[in-house]
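Interim report to the steering committee. The following record documents the input for Retrotransposon gag domain-containing protein (300 residues).
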Amino acid sequence: MVEDQGKEIEQPLSTPPPGFGDATLGMGEPYITQAITLPIIDQCQGRAQNIAPQIALPQPIIPRHLFLDDHKDGLRRNDRHEVDEISCEVECLSKKLDKLKRRGTANEEREMLDLERNNSTFRDEILMECVPNNFRIPKLPNYDGIDDPQRHVNKFERIIRQYAISDAQKAQIFSTTLDKAADEWFTSLVPGTLVNYTQLARKFIYNFSSKKKAKRPYTHLFSIQQKEDEPLREFIDRFNTESLMVQDLRMDLVVAVLMNSLQPSSFRSKLSRSPPRSMEELMIMSEKYINEEEFSTMKD
């Protein structure tokens, strides 16, 4: 090192640093620099590798109430209390939700009932008593406003009386048998006017009373005469059909009409000797002589 005016001036490195010896002799300046720096870099990397394992990563913070107690099976006492409170809250919310659902269903049913009340001719007493879902409605005749309404009511009652249903249910079922003109009449009634089945049947018969066949007097039967070549079976069938149109027909009048209408025969003689007391006895008696007549015809 040479002093220049009281200052030390560094001279270029002409000899290798201690420890390199003759290994660097003959090498250029770049190779000398690399030979000096590589050991330093290796030493720094070694320190980094020795330091890295000593650095601890931050651990996640786990809530205290999630730890299991090593000395007990299950959660700690405080933690169980918290779980019970949460379960209770969930149960309360579930009950409230069910209550809201039921309230919504009840509101819908109430709205449907109100709508039905506004459009139905039945009163609330009938609408509230619905026909059970498991009740199989029997096959019933329909009425379209053409035939005799009383005959339709009679057929309906003969079938429906076999089932244990209330008057209100009978009224609802009867309304389903009305078709075409009869159904138009039913829907035209003032809403909420029908209170029971009897009222409905009376209104129905009265409205279609013009379709009823007028009853004839018993004297009408005297016009029915057996023809000379008419079989007894055909005459009895014709007589029965016409007798249904006669009002308040007594049995003594039936016998008198038959005595006047029949051709001379053993059956007519039998009627005069032993007059029947009912239509059933008359049919049994006539059936016997009809069979004899038909057998005789086949024999000939």
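Confidence is low (pLDDT under 50) at residues 65-73. The committee is asked to note this result when reviewing the revised timeline.
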